[in-house]
């Protein structure tokens, strides 16, 4: 059982990290897999009543790897802690199968009451990017992505992306959620894609709208000028009327990365 899980862990890292060249390199040089091995032992101690021993093993893992996982936390299969220095996972946190967690992530709580679900639950194949903070006892749905440095304080639907402080939820195209959103799963390093920033999307919409209006105004002035000439009333057209489009839509679009 131990070696079967270990082979699965190594294989998932080789699939997701292009810098990994061999299973031996992963086993000996990746702190994320060391943290998983030690956490499973600490979790066993915790669940069998050896609370102090579980905490001591967790503390040893923290010293050796820089990854702090409470022994009470539940971690699924094929979880990849990539780099992961400074990761903190709270006692009641749950990490689903296939999740990827980068450095500086906190799966923390907002409640001081013992015995309650204080920390988040991550579904399957969730990506939590560098520096993100997921705070509270809510669920992050399957296939969701948390952007770098986001602060998430409310549930995230399956397949959605959370970015910003506090995090804004961006639904996948077509409003697909759940199994529909996971029908063609695609790994997204650091949880970002070109469609993930709502402010950029809003700016792109404003630029497109302004460019269209500028084009329409230019056409209207040209039509007025032509009509005035036909009626021999060219002096009715203002001298400063726009005869050509001057809105630099392409330049502004480049600035926001369109």
UniProtKB/TrEMBL annotation:
GO biological process, one term: cysteine biosynthetic process from serine
EC number per UniProt: 2.3.1.30
GO molecular function annotations of the record: serine O-acetyltransferase activity
CDD domains hit by this protein: LbH_SAT
Compartment annotation: Cytoplasm
Pathway: Amino-acid biosynthesis; L-cysteine biosynthesis; L-cysteine from L-serine: step 1/2
Pfam entry (one): Hexapep
GO CC annotations on file: cytoplasm
Catalytically driven reaction(s): L-serine + acetyl-CoA = O-acetyl-L-serine + CoA
Key words of the record: Acyltransferase, Amino-acid biosynthesis, Cysteine biosynthesis, Cytoplasm, Repeat, Transferase
NCBIfam families: cysE, EPS_EpsC
PANTHER family (alphabetical): SERINE ACETYLTRANSFERASE
Family indicated by similarity: Belongs to the transferase hexapeptide repeat family.
Protein name: Serine acetyltransferase
The species this protein was found in: Pseudorhodoferax soli
């Amino acid at each position: 059982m131990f070696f079967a899980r270990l082979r699965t862990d190594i294989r998932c890292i080789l699939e997701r990290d292009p810098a990994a060249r061999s299973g031996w390199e992963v086993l000996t040089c990746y702190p994320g897999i060391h943290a998983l091995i030690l956490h499973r032992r600490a979790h066993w101690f915790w669940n069998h009543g050896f609370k102090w021993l579980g905490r001591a093993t967790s503390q040893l893992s923290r010293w050796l790897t820089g990854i702090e996982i409470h022994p009470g936390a539940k971690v699924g299969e094929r979880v990849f802690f990539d780099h992961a220095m400074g990761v903190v996972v709270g006692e009641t946190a749950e990490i689903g199968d296939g999740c990827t967690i980068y450095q500086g992530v906190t799966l923390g709580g907002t409640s001081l009451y013992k015995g309650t679900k204080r920390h988040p639950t991550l579904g399957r194949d969730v990506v939590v990017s560098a520096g993100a903070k997921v705070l509270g006892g809510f669920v992050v749905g399957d296939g969701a992505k948390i952007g770098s440095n986001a602060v998430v304080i409310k549930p995230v639907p399956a397949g959605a992306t959370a970015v910003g402080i506090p995090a804004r939820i961006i639904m996948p195209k077509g409003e697909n959620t759940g199994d529909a959103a996971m029908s063609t799963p695609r790994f997204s390093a650091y949880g970002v894609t070109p469609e993930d920033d709502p402010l950029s999307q809003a700016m792109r919409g404003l630029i497109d709208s302004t460019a269209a209006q500028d084009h329409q105004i230019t056409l209207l002035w040209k039509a007025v000028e032509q009509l005035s000439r036909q009626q021999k009333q060219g002096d009715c057209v203002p001298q400063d009327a726009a005869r050509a489009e001057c809105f630099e839509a392409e330049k502004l679009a480049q600035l926001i990365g369109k």
